[in-house]
Amino acid sequence: MQFENKIICDGLLNKSLEVKMQKLIIYGPASLMGEIEVEGAKNAALPILTASILAQNKVIITNVPDIVDVKHTIEILKYLGCNVLFENNTVVVDSSSIGRFTIPPEYAKLMRSSVLFMGALLSKFRRVELSNHPGGCEIGQRPIDLHISAFRQLGIEVFENNNRIMCRCDRIKGSEIFLPIPSVGATENIILASIFCDGEVVIKNAAKEPEIVDLCHFLNKLGAKIKGAGTHIIKIEGVKRLNSEEVIHKVIPDRIVAGTYLCAVAACGKEVVLKSVFPRHLDSILHILKGSGCKIKESKNEIWIKKEGRLKGGLRITTHYYPGFPTDLQAPVCSAFAVASGVTIIKETIFENRFKHVPELVKMGADIHVEKDIAVINGVEKLRGCKVFARDLRGGAALFIAGLSAQGVTEVMDADYIDRGYEKIEEKYSLLGAKILREKGE
Ligand code: UD1
Q1: What is its subcellular localisation (predicted)?
Q2: Least CB-packed of 37, 88, 219, 256 within 10 Å?
Q3: Of the listed 9, 82, 137, 334, which one is catalytic?
Q4: Could you report the per-residue pLDDT of 378-401, keeping only the tens digit for each?
């Protein structure tokens, strides 16, 4: 068993290196036309898969995007000892044979969300070890001090030694935790760690993101008692054990993937219908695009967008916690407004290092200046295709949009960053009329 898992681990690393070689070749300019289904949300699927280790019985999770971060999470589940099947966007997890409480460095450094296994494993075993600081896209310092401080408030002993973090406790203490920042990951970790707490855990200034609401729906189906998800105060009443029934859960649509389609249409033009989407999760981006000359209609699960002529800039956009404008759409919006009329100003308030796409957009002819946390975009008529490098997931998506709108051929190198969060992106946009090839890079 040990040996087999070592192989999985090494295989995973090799695979990661291999996908680093991918590049997307985009033949612009595209005009996007048609209907497209929006995939399930990465940021909901990852914590839900992590939470599945708590289930008493098998869980069936549907609408799971077929993306690299999901595959990595499944590898971690398998490493811990779960039996997992992933087929046709459905994951079946049987955690009855789980036997480990350690996340090895190879896995921890692959993904920031590996940190959520700490909360889930603490609930399961009252113990967890993380042998590396959680990785992920380098968009800022991304510390985990709020997670650790919250664990300590729950009565968990936390030892840190070099990069290694060890946590243990006899029980999880009911308590009130105030988060100085409404961190998505810290909110999720506290919820996961508190399922079996003594009494009640109250999170004040909790994050309100829809993905947290989805995680709590899933946990409540398993038998947890969580109230207030989607508000700034979340209450978790400890339960003795979870239900024994099999649970089926459908992951919510990915609002960032949907927002990326909207930005692509805003940049390239024409007419697209997004299906299987929750427009209410996209209020901030819809408001911006409506104010910039896009025609948009929403119904319960669909968004129709039409853009003719040039996008109108002249806005000031600031990233915020939900329901504000999401930091994950900052880069895609940058690409759309790079070709808008007038000057658009974008202020990034969540992460310190999230303008890595800008120098690449400038290579393509964009006129953008970054000063600390502000990007000033002087819209140009057109971008021109060239070779650009993705440096992180959403920045990669921004270059992809820029390639769609540009004149000529754009090569987006290191497209594996994009594959972390977008399912078969070239196939999806080809369905809307774009011409894209995928090749191994140099
Ligand atoms: C999640 C999302 C990510 C999104 C981000 C903000 C997932 C898997 N990822 O990331 O796509 O961009 O929310 O919406 O859901 N912070 C601290 N100390 C901590 C934790 C966070 O200072 O212990 C800071 C971060 O550095 C950042 C801010 O808080 O500046 C928000 O981070 P957080 O909400 O925790 O983001 P993630 O959960 O990592």
Answers
A1: Cytoplasm
A2: 88
A3: 137
A4: 999 999 999 999 999 999 999 999
In degrees rounded to 5, what are phi and psi of residue 302? -135, 150
CA distances from residue 360 to 260, 333, 356, 391, 413 in whole angstroms, order as listed: 18, 15, 8, 10, 11
Name the least confident of 106-115, 213-222, 404-413.
106-115
Task: Give the pLDDT score at 21.
Answer: 75
The CA distance from 125 to 80, in Å, is 12
Span 341-350, average pLDDT: 97
The pLDDT of residue 4 = 31
Instruction: Please name each of the domains of the chain with its CATH number.
Output: 22-39+254-440 (3.65.10.10), 42-250 (3.65.10.10)
Residue 143 annotated as lining a ligand binding site: yes
Is 394 labelled as part of a ligand binding site? no
Per DSSP, 254 falls in state -
Q: With contact defined as beta carbons under 8 Å apart, do 45 and 441 qualify?
A: no
CB 379: neighbour CB atoms within 10 A? 21
CB 62, CB 88: distance < 8 Å:
no
Q: How many helices (H) and strands (E) does the chain have?
A: 15, 24
Contact 182, 201 (CB under 8 A): no
Atom of ligand 1 nearest to the CA of 147: 23
**pLDDT over 70 (residue 82):** yes
Q: CB burial class (10 A; 0-12, 13-18, 19+) of residue 291?
A: exposed
